[in-house]
Design brief:
CATH superfamily of the largest domain in chain A: Nucleoside Triphosphate Pyrophosphohydrolase
GO molecular function (chains A, B): hydrolase activity
Largest sheet of chain A: 9 strands, mixed
Organism (chains A, B): Marinobacter iranensis
Protein name (chains A, B): NUDIX hydrolase
Helix content of chain A: 10-25%
Oligomer: homodimer
Low-confidence stretches of chain A: none
Keywords (chains A, B): Hydrolase
Chain lengths: 185, 185
Protein backbone atom coordinates (compact mmCIF):
# COMPACT_ATOMS: atom_id res chain seq x y z
CA UNK A 1 0.00 0.00 0.00
CA UNK A 2 1.42 3.35 -1.10
CA UNK A 3 -1.59 5.64 -1.37
CA UNK A 4 -4.64 6.36 0.78
CA UNK A 5 -7.73 4.63 -0.62
CA UNK A 6 -9.90 7.38 0.89
CA UNK A 7 -8.19 10.53 -0.44
CA UNK A 8 -5.43 9.35 -2.81
CA UNK A 9 -2.52 10.94 -0.94
CA UNK A 10 0.62 9.00 0.10
CA UNK A 11 0.49 6.84 3.24
CA UNK A 12 3.25 6.25 5.76
CA UNK A 13 3.80 3.43 8.25
CA UNK A 14 3.50 4.51 11.87
CA UNK A 15 1.91 3.52 15.15
CA UNK A 16 -1.35 5.46 15.60
CA UNK A 17 -2.17 6.94 19.00
CA UNK A 18 -3.62 4.31 21.32
CA UNK A 19 -2.35 1.48 19.11
CA UNK A 20 0.76 -0.70 19.45
CA UNK A 21 1.35 -1.76 15.84
CA UNK A 22 2.54 -0.08 12.69
CA UNK A 23 -0.33 0.77 10.35
CA UNK A 24 -0.61 2.49 7.03
CA UNK A 25 -1.75 6.03 7.89
CA UNK A 26 -2.59 8.76 5.37
CA UNK A 27 -0.24 11.75 5.51
CA UNK A 28 -3.13 14.08 4.66
CA UNK A 29 -6.50 12.80 5.94
CA UNK A 30 -5.04 10.63 8.76
CA UNK A 31 -7.17 7.63 7.72
CA UNK A 32 -5.78 4.41 9.24
CA UNK A 33 -5.74 1.44 6.85
CA UNK A 34 -5.81 -1.83 8.79
CA UNK A 35 -4.78 -5.06 7.14
CA UNK A 36 -6.18 -8.37 8.36
CA UNK A 37 -5.92 -12.08 7.56
CA UNK A 38 -8.09 -13.62 4.89
CA UNK A 39 -10.12 -16.82 5.05
CA UNK A 40 -9.84 -19.57 2.45
CA UNK A 41 -12.84 -21.93 2.55
CA UNK A 42 -13.26 -25.30 0.88
CA UNK A 43 -14.61 -28.83 1.15
CA UNK A 44 -13.47 -32.43 1.34
CA UNK A 45 -16.05 -33.75 -1.16
CA UNK A 46 -16.75 -37.49 -0.81
CA UNK A 47 -18.57 -39.88 -3.14
CA UNK A 48 -18.76 -43.60 -2.37
CA UNK A 49 -15.71 -43.45 -0.13
CA UNK A 50 -13.59 -41.58 -2.66
CA UNK A 51 -12.35 -37.97 -2.49
CA UNK A 52 -12.91 -35.46 -5.28
CA UNK A 53 -9.75 -33.52 -6.14
CA UNK A 54 -9.18 -30.78 -8.75
CA UNK A 55 -6.03 -30.32 -10.84
CA UNK A 56 -5.28 -26.61 -10.85
CA UNK A 57 -5.51 -24.68 -14.12
CA UNK A 58 -4.11 -21.51 -12.51
CA UNK A 59 -1.01 -20.36 -10.68
CA UNK A 60 0.22 -20.81 -8.07
CA UNK A 61 0.76 -24.57 -8.26
CA UNK A 62 -0.55 -25.00 -11.80
CA UNK A 63 -1.09 -28.70 -12.54
CA UNK A 64 -1.12 -29.83 -8.90
CA UNK A 65 -4.06 -31.48 -7.18
CA UNK A 66 -6.14 -29.58 -4.65
CA UNK A 67 -9.31 -29.77 -2.64
CA UNK A 68 -11.82 -27.24 -4.01
CA UNK A 69 -11.29 -24.02 -2.03
CA UNK A 70 -10.87 -20.30 -2.43
CA UNK A 71 -11.04 -16.90 -0.77
CA UNK A 72 -14.19 -16.20 1.20
CA UNK A 73 -16.11 -13.21 -0.20
CA UNK A 74 -17.91 -10.45 1.67
CA UNK A 75 -21.58 -11.13 2.56
CA UNK A 76 -21.22 -14.89 2.80
CA UNK A 77 -20.51 -17.49 5.50
CA UNK A 78 -17.57 -19.90 5.40
CA UNK A 79 -20.03 -22.69 4.59
CA UNK A 80 -21.46 -20.71 1.68
CA UNK A 81 -17.95 -19.90 0.47
CA UNK A 82 -16.91 -23.56 0.69
CA UNK A 83 -19.90 -24.84 -1.30
CA UNK A 84 -19.61 -21.99 -3.83
CA UNK A 85 -15.95 -22.81 -4.46
CA UNK A 86 -16.78 -26.51 -4.80
CA UNK A 87 -19.31 -25.63 -7.47
CA UNK A 88 -17.00 -23.20 -9.28
CA UNK A 89 -13.94 -25.45 -9.33
CA UNK A 90 -15.47 -28.93 -9.53
CA UNK A 91 -19.03 -28.28 -10.82
CA UNK A 92 -20.16 -30.43 -7.91
CA UNK A 93 -23.17 -29.92 -5.65
CA UNK A 94 -22.41 -30.98 -2.10
CA UNK A 95 -24.26 -31.59 1.14
CA UNK A 96 -22.08 -30.44 4.02
CA UNK A 97 -21.61 -32.73 7.03
CA UNK A 98 -19.57 -30.58 9.39
CA UNK A 99 -16.72 -28.12 9.72
CA UNK A 100 -13.63 -30.27 9.68
CA UNK A 101 -10.29 -28.41 9.69
CA UNK A 102 -9.24 -24.87 10.60
CA UNK A 103 -5.60 -24.41 9.69
CA UNK A 104 -3.79 -21.15 10.33
CA UNK A 105 -1.04 -20.08 7.95
CA UNK A 106 0.22 -16.98 9.77
CA UNK A 107 3.24 -16.28 7.52
CA UNK A 108 0.85 -15.56 4.65
CA UNK A 109 -1.94 -14.07 6.80
CA UNK A 110 -4.49 -16.75 5.96
CA UNK A 111 -6.85 -19.11 7.76
CA UNK A 112 -7.97 -22.16 5.78
CA UNK A 113 -11.25 -23.84 6.72
CA UNK A 114 -12.46 -27.10 5.18
CA UNK A 115 -15.90 -28.67 5.55
CA UNK A 116 -16.51 -32.39 5.19
CA UNK A 117 -19.13 -32.86 2.48
CA UNK A 118 -20.85 -35.46 0.32
CA UNK A 119 -21.49 -35.09 -3.40
CA UNK A 120 -25.25 -34.68 -3.69
CA UNK A 121 -25.73 -36.76 -6.84
CA UNK A 122 -22.26 -37.98 -7.83
CA UNK A 123 -21.94 -35.49 -10.66
CA UNK A 124 -18.87 -33.31 -11.12
CA UNK A 125 -16.77 -31.67 -13.80
CA UNK A 126 -13.93 -29.22 -14.33
CA UNK A 127 -14.64 -25.55 -13.61
CA UNK A 128 -12.66 -22.72 -15.21
CA UNK A 129 -9.87 -22.92 -12.64
CA UNK A 130 -9.45 -26.71 -12.99
CA UNK A 131 -7.74 -28.75 -15.73
CA UNK A 132 -9.64 -31.85 -14.60
CA UNK A 133 -11.31 -33.32 -11.53
CA UNK A 134 -11.18 -36.90 -10.38
CA UNK A 135 -12.37 -39.15 -7.54
CA UNK A 136 -9.47 -40.76 -5.66
CA UNK A 137 -9.65 -43.76 -3.36
CA UNK A 138 -7.70 -43.13 -0.16
CA UNK A 139 -4.88 -45.42 -1.27
CA UNK A 140 -4.57 -43.49 -4.54
CA UNK A 141 -4.28 -39.94 -3.16
CA UNK A 142 -1.48 -38.25 -5.19
CA UNK A 143 0.58 -37.19 -2.16
CA UNK A 144 3.53 -36.05 -4.25
CA UNK A 145 1.41 -33.84 -6.48
CA UNK A 146 -0.68 -31.93 -3.91
CA UNK A 147 -0.96 -28.17 -4.23
CA UNK A 148 -0.72 -26.71 -0.73
CA UNK A 149 0.29 -27.72 2.82
CA UNK A 150 -3.23 -27.11 4.16
CA UNK A 151 -4.67 -29.50 1.57
CA UNK A 152 -2.09 -32.12 2.53
CA UNK A 153 -2.77 -31.67 6.25
CA UNK A 154 -6.53 -31.90 5.78
CA UNK A 155 -6.19 -35.08 3.71
CA UNK A 156 -3.77 -36.60 6.25
CA UNK A 157 -6.28 -35.95 9.03
CA UNK A 158 -9.10 -37.32 6.91
CA UNK A 159 -7.25 -40.56 6.19
CA UNK A 160 -6.57 -41.03 9.92
CA UNK A 161 -10.16 -40.23 10.86
CA UNK A 162 -11.62 -42.64 8.29
CA UNK A 163 -9.83 -45.41 10.21
CA UNK A 164 -11.38 -44.19 13.47
CA UNK A 165 -14.76 -43.48 11.88
CA UNK A 166 -14.78 -40.22 13.83
CA UNK A 167 -14.38 -36.75 12.31
CA UNK A 168 -13.89 -34.10 15.00
CA UNK A 169 -13.01 -30.47 14.24
CA UNK A 170 -9.24 -30.07 14.00
CA UNK A 171 -7.51 -26.75 14.69
CA UNK A 172 -3.92 -26.65 13.49
CA UNK A 173 -1.16 -24.34 12.23
CA UNK A 174 1.25 -24.50 9.29
CA UNK A 175 4.42 -22.57 10.12
CA UNK A 176 7.09 -21.41 7.72
CA UNK A 177 10.50 -22.69 8.79
CA UNK A 178 13.89 -23.36 7.25
CA UNK A 179 12.96 -22.07 3.83
CA UNK A 180 9.92 -24.26 3.36
CA UNK A 181 6.43 -24.65 4.70
CA UNK A 182 6.68 -27.25 7.43
CA UNK A 183 4.28 -28.70 9.88
CA UNK A 184 3.97 -28.26 13.58
CA UNK A 185 2.80 -31.34 15.41
CA UNK B 1 -12.60 2.94 -1.43
CA UNK B 2 -12.17 5.85 -3.85
CA UNK B 3 -8.48 5.74 -4.83
CA UNK B 4 -6.04 3.01 -5.83
CA UNK B 5 -3.73 2.13 -2.94
CA UNK B 6 -1.02 1.14 -5.45
CA UNK B 7 -0.88 4.24 -7.68
CA UNK B 8 -3.23 6.84 -6.12
CA UNK B 9 -5.55 7.23 -9.11
CA UNK B 10 -9.36 6.89 -8.87
CA UNK B 11 -10.90 3.41 -8.79
CA UNK B 12 -14.17 2.31 -10.36
CA UNK B 13 -16.43 -0.63 -9.58
CA UNK B 14 -16.60 -3.22 -12.33
CA UNK B 15 -16.40 -6.96 -12.94
CA UNK B 16 -12.84 -7.87 -13.97
CA UNK B 17 -12.32 -10.34 -16.81
CA UNK B 18 -12.71 -13.92 -15.60
CA UNK B 19 -14.49 -12.79 -12.44
CA UNK B 20 -18.20 -12.66 -11.62
CA UNK B 21 -18.32 -9.95 -8.96
CA UNK B 22 -17.91 -6.21 -8.87
CA UNK B 23 -14.48 -5.19 -7.59
CA UNK B 24 -12.69 -1.91 -7.10
CA UNK B 25 -10.40 -1.62 -10.13
CA UNK B 26 -7.92 1.19 -10.76
CA UNK B 27 -8.74 3.32 -13.79
CA UNK B 28 -5.02 3.75 -14.52
CA UNK B 29 -2.93 0.76 -13.38
CA UNK B 30 -5.79 -1.79 -13.52
CA UNK B 31 -4.97 -3.11 -10.03
CA UNK B 32 -7.90 -5.08 -8.59
CA UNK B 33 -8.61 -4.38 -4.92
CA UNK B 34 -10.41 -7.32 -3.34
CA UNK B 35 -12.29 -6.92 -0.08
CA UNK B 36 -12.75 -9.87 2.24
CA UNK B 37 -14.38 -10.67 5.60
CA UNK B 38 -12.50 -10.08 8.81
CA UNK B 39 -12.12 -12.40 11.79
CA UNK B 40 -12.89 -11.34 15.35
CA UNK B 41 -11.31 -13.69 17.91
CA UNK B 42 -11.98 -13.91 21.63
CA UNK B 43 -12.35 -16.18 24.64
CA UNK B 44 -14.92 -17.36 27.16
CA UNK B 45 -12.64 -16.99 30.20
CA UNK B 46 -13.69 -19.13 33.16
CA UNK B 47 -12.57 -19.04 36.80
CA UNK B 48 -14.14 -21.28 39.42
CA UNK B 49 -17.29 -21.70 37.34
CA UNK B 50 -17.73 -18.00 36.69
CA UNK B 51 -17.33 -16.11 33.41
CA UNK B 52 -15.11 -13.05 33.05
CA UNK B 53 -16.83 -10.22 31.19
CA UNK B 54 -15.52 -6.76 30.28
CA UNK B 55 -17.57 -3.55 30.28
CA UNK B 56 -16.66 -1.66 27.12
CA UNK B 57 -14.86 1.68 27.40
CA UNK B 58 -15.12 2.29 23.64
CA UNK B 59 -17.78 2.61 20.96
CA UNK B 60 -19.67 0.84 19.62
CA UNK B 61 -21.69 -0.33 22.60
CA UNK B 62 -19.87 1.77 25.19
CA UNK B 63 -20.79 0.61 28.70
CA UNK B 64 -22.12 -2.79 27.63
CA UNK B 65 -20.66 -6.13 28.75
CA UNK B 66 -18.66 -8.24 26.33
CA UNK B 67 -16.46 -11.28 26.17
CA UNK B 68 -12.87 -10.19 25.49
CA UNK B 69 -12.45 -10.21 21.71
CA UNK B 70 -11.11 -8.16 18.83
CA UNK B 71 -9.92 -8.15 15.25
CA UNK B 72 -7.36 -10.78 14.36
CA UNK B 73 -4.08 -9.24 13.19
CA UNK B 74 -1.79 -10.33 10.38
CA UNK B 75 0.90 -12.88 11.32
CA UNK B 76 -1.07 -14.50 14.13
CA UNK B 77 -3.44 -17.44 14.59
CA UNK B 78 -7.00 -17.13 15.87
CA UNK B 79 -5.85 -18.69 19.14
CA UNK B 80 -3.06 -16.12 19.47
CA UNK B 81 -5.49 -13.33 18.63
CA UNK B 82 -8.00 -14.59 21.20
CA UNK B 83 -5.45 -14.80 24.02
CA UNK B 84 -3.90 -11.44 23.06
CA UNK B 85 -7.28 -9.73 23.17
CA UNK B 86 -8.03 -11.35 26.53
CA UNK B 87 -4.82 -9.92 27.88
CA UNK B 88 -5.36 -6.48 26.36
CA UNK B 89 -8.98 -6.07 27.46
CA UNK B 90 -9.07 -8.02 30.74
CA UNK B 91 -5.40 -8.21 31.77
CA UNK B 92 -6.00 -11.93 32.18
CA UNK B 93 -3.71 -14.81 31.27
CA UNK B 94 -5.67 -17.78 30.00
CA UNK B 95 -5.11 -21.43 29.17
CA UNK B 96 -7.21 -22.34 26.16
CA UNK B 97 -9.31 -25.51 26.26
CA UNK B 98 -10.75 -25.63 22.75
CA UNK B 99 -12.27 -23.67 19.91
CA UNK B 100 -15.88 -23.22 20.92
CA UNK B 101 -18.00 -21.03 18.61
CA UNK B 102 -17.63 -19.85 15.02
CA UNK B 103 -20.39 -17.37 14.27
CA UNK B 104 -20.75 -15.76 10.87
CA UNK B 105 -22.12 -12.23 10.64
CA UNK B 106 -22.35 -11.88 6.86
CA UNK B 107 -24.12 -8.51 6.78
CA UNK B 108 -21.05 -6.90 8.35
CA UNK B 109 -18.51 -9.21 6.66
CA UNK B 110 -17.21 -10.72 9.90
CA UNK B 111 -16.58 -14.15 11.38
CA UNK B 112 -16.43 -14.31 15.18
CA UNK B 113 -14.50 -17.16 16.80
CA UNK B 114 -14.47 -17.79 20.54
CA UNK B 115 -12.22 -20.20 22.43
CA UNK B 116 -13.19 -21.73 25.76
CA UNK B 117 -10.43 -20.85 28.24
CA UNK B 118 -9.52 -20.93 31.92
CA UNK B 119 -7.91 -18.06 33.78
CA UNK B 120 -4.38 -19.24 34.52
CA UNK B 121 -4.09 -17.79 38.01
CA UNK B 122 -7.40 -16.05 38.70
CA UNK B 123 -5.94 -12.59 38.17
CA UNK B 124 -7.59 -10.01 35.93
CA UNK B 125 -8.09 -6.28 35.57
CA UNK B 126 -9.37 -3.62 33.21
CA UNK B 127 -7.38 -2.98 30.03
CA UNK B 128 -7.52 0.33 28.17
CA UNK B 129 -10.65 -0.63 26.25
CA UNK B 130 -12.55 -1.74 29.38
CA UNK B 131 -14.24 0.33 32.10
CA UNK B 132 -14.18 -2.67 34.43
CA UNK B 133 -14.08 -6.46 34.34
CA UNK B 134 -15.99 -8.83 36.56
CA UNK B 135 -16.60 -12.55 37.11
CA UNK B 136 -20.26 -13.51 36.67
CA UNK B 137 -21.92 -16.68 37.90
CA UNK B 138 -24.12 -18.16 35.18
CA UNK B 139 -27.29 -17.02 36.94
CA UNK B 140 -25.94 -13.46 37.09
CA UNK B 141 -25.02 -12.96 33.41
CA UNK B 142 -26.27 -9.44 32.49
CA UNK B 143 -28.34 -10.57 29.48
CA UNK B 144 -29.93 -7.14 29.00
CA UNK B 145 -26.59 -5.35 28.94
CA UNK B 146 -24.59 -7.50 26.52
CA UNK B 147 -22.66 -5.80 23.74
CA UNK B 148 -23.12 -7.90 20.60
CA UNK B 149 -25.29 -10.75 19.24
CA UNK B 150 -22.28 -13.06 18.87
CA UNK B 151 -21.40 -12.59 22.55
CA UNK B 152 -25.00 -13.36 23.51
CA UNK B 153 -25.13 -16.44 21.28
CA UNK B 154 -21.82 -17.75 22.64
CA UNK B 155 -22.97 -17.27 26.23
CA UNK B 156 -26.34 -18.92 25.49
CA UNK B 157 -24.56 -21.95 24.06
CA UNK B 158 -22.15 -22.02 26.99
CA UNK B 159 -24.97 -22.00 29.55
CA UNK B 160 -26.66 -24.90 27.73
CA UNK B 161 -23.41 -26.84 27.44
CA UNK B 162 -22.54 -26.41 31.12
CA UNK B 163 -25.74 -28.35 31.88
CA UNK B 164 -24.67 -31.12 29.48
CA UNK B 165 -21.02 -30.98 30.62
CA UNK B 166 -20.10 -31.21 26.93
CA UNK B 167 -18.60 -28.37 24.87
CA UNK B 168 -18.55 -29.20 21.16
CA UNK B 169 -17.60 -26.71 18.45
CA UNK B 170 -20.66 -24.74 17.35
CA UNK B 171 -20.93 -23.18 13.88
CA UNK B 172 -23.73 -20.66 13.60
CA UNK B 173 -24.85 -17.50 11.78
CA UNK B 174 -26.31 -14.20 12.91
CA UNK B 175 -28.46 -12.72 10.13
CA UNK B 176 -29.73 -9.17 9.86
CA UNK B 177 -33.51 -9.13 9.47
CA UNK B 178 -36.39 -6.73 10.02
CA UNK B 179 -34.21 -3.82 11.07
CA UNK B 180 -32.36 -5.62 13.85
CA UNK B 181 -29.77 -8.32 14.26
CA UNK B 182 -31.72 -11.50 14.81
CA UNK B 183 -30.83 -15.10 15.27
CA UNK B 184 -31.28 -18.03 12.95
CA UNK B 185 -32.06 -21.29 14.71
Amino acid sequence: MKYCSTCGHPVEQRIPQGDNRHRYVCTRCEAIHYQNPRIVAGTVPIWEGRILLCRRAIEPRYGYWTLPAGFMENSETTLEAATRETWEEALAEVTVDNLYTIIHVPHIDQVHMFYRAALTNGEFGAGEESLETQLFAIEDIPWDELSFPTVRRTLELYVEDVQKEHFPVHVDDIRYRMGSATERR
